[in-house]
Amino acid sequence: MPFSNTHNAMKLKFSANAEFPDLSKHNNHMAKILTPAMYDHLRSKQTPSGFTLDDVIQTGVDNPGHPFIMTVGCVAGDEETYEVFKELLDPVIQDRHGGYKPSDKHKTDLNPANLKGGDDLDPNYVLSSRVRTGRSIRGFCLPPHCSRGERRAIEKLSVEALDALDGDLKGKYYALKNMTDAEQQQLIDDHFLFDKPVSPLLLAAGMARDWPDARGIWHNDNKTFLVWVNEEDHLRVISMQKGGNMREVFTRFCTGLTKIESLFKAKGHPFMWNEHLGYVLTCPSNLGTGLRGGVHVKLPNLSKHAKFDEVLKKLRLQKRGTGGVDTAAVGGVFDISNADRLGFSEVELVQMVVDGVKLLVDMEKQLEKGGSIDGLMPAQK
Amino acid sequence: MASAFTKIMTVRNTAVLLASLGAGTVATGYMLSDNAALSATDRTKLYPPSSDFPDLRKHNNCMASALTPALYAKLRDKVTPSNWTLDQCIQTGVDNPGHPFIKTVGMVAGDEESYEVFAEVFNPIIKDRHNGYDPITMKHPTDLDASKLTSGMFDENYVLSSRVRTGRSIRGLSLPPACTRAERREVERVVVTALSGLKGDLAGHYYGLGDMTEAEQQRLIDDHFLFDKPVSPLLTCAGMARDWPDARGIWHNNEKTFLIWINEEDHTRVISMEKGGNMKRVFERFCRGLKQVESLIQERGWEFMWNEHLGYILTCPSNLGTGLRAGVHVKLPKLSQDARFNKILENLRLQKRGTGGVDTAAVGDTFDISNLDRLGKSEVELVQVVVDGVNYLIDCEKRLEKGQDIKVPSPISQFKK
After folding, report:
1. Whole-structure pTM value
2. What is the ipTM of this complex?
3. Chain B, nearest residue to A209 by Cα
4. In angstroms, rounded to a whole number, what is the distance separating the alpha carbons of residues B366 and B387?
């Protein structure tokens, strides 16, 4: 909702019960945790920039959720949201991130030298490798809450920082509202272009306001390092390439991120980070590392095996179709990535992907030969 | 207002940002430390109106035509008594640039006072949309005396159905873009309580959207009464679909000729309709029903939003005045093929739509014909325009059937100046 929301003061004329949302048909983390008492306790609060409890939960009220998929149902409007509304968000985080406690500390590790192996995933099976994360810029409100002036300031700052990158990271920015038809087509062909969100989860949180003002895509000339500006988060950072050299992808990811971070710091705007939540992003599901590292891998035999899902669970991996979240796999090719975001470092998560995918490919090869995978079953990570 | 809440977090000294920020910002020389959190009031200093002014270069709606950087600068930091802002009024117009051929309004009211606090933007929009009506100098006539309607019985060989609709807002409660859940539930309570007092041919029943059974839902769909969660981005961007389906519902009388939608685009939408050509009876029921609902809410100390310049206050400026659309479904196979059809409609101040409603195409030769205007003429006047106009159209159709020629009528006046 638009910033400086002093409209909240008016709601206090009505009782908490009169205002409490009807969550009886809801199935999301927010609905499971928010009680009338908690609502009563938190509804008079605001973050300094004016983000309120109703702003946090609106998306969860408007989107009851799916009987099988548990969505989060809340968003942050600024860094302070996680503090001011911790009574709600700490249990949501605990629920979403496997029991992560309010007292837990999150470890950040963006040193690619700490990754073991990862440069030899079999390219006959692993078609492409990719690591993505998000970053928020301290001092600005997040996409659900920022004003046009802030969003433009975020864009300007980001473009200045990215323009300072050189070497294999040197690149160019394409603002969504200025791009030519030719540029647009190229970005679509490269699978880089993002479009106005259509998901009601995002729309109800106010993230598509003023589209396409101050939104854009930056990528390096080599097309292996890509940054989205002002989509669901201030920045989404993506490193990717064809083949199975996850090590190279992760190295470029870390190098690029570290460089960008120091450029922003030099301008007086470090990234939002703290030792409890790690990197702070709009959706609580992306806290910690915000990292999804994954591959597109051919597993036609293994994917039909009765124990496939169990193996993935043990490896702390997640499967998706190659169209991304909620798509189905096509031709036995799966997107396999880490299931966790918070409570493990970046190196640890990518290590899980590297080791896990290696095992999956070994299993696939076994099944191809008509062998059994029983001897290869991993322990629970 | 804001100050009480900005004390929640301590604000350490804040910092230079502005030289590095967007175009038009003024450097103020603040220093931002790692943990500083800017208060809402700090933000208004840090981001002057010029940095927030929307990019409207590709826009074609009434708001984009009316809003200048100077007006925005003047009004950005103002709030209505319920703390509604200009940015919130215009968000739908910023998010929906519009169509090259259709000029949408692009701005909504969050409460009755929006039209006053932001009058400098609303008034030119009202003028633009309502054919030059000037809210400052002109007065809008309200007249719900159905007995004044003449010749309100159409030839039923041509007219299949007749309908009149309008909207009403409950004074003291915010409008759909802005209302809190408690306010919306209060609107529902006030209106449903009043409607339960209706008797005779108006006696009926309320169906809350969240509570209805599958059977009730199917029946309401079959009766063409059920409304669904808005999908139009014009409405969703204005925040009108929040908390759906909480406190939304449909009331209708047992005879299914008087229907009220609660908390869709407006607090209430009131519809009187029936098959056939008896517009007189439809309008009579419309006026009687509206007046009875009004006195029932007044018994409990409530009233409708209304003033002498804008008439009945509704969410969208396009519905000010009477908020009235009176129309028929009418068969005009020959006339609709005549090259003069559109000009005749224009001069009669009528509008054609497909029978699926606004933006649908006509199926076969049956058209939805209704009044174009909403503000500046009374309810009686507008329904008379429809009655006279449709009678004229039917007369043309009959002439063409007999091979006679027709005449384009001279344009009728828009409103008394």
Report:
1. 0.89
2. 0.89
3. B95
4. 17
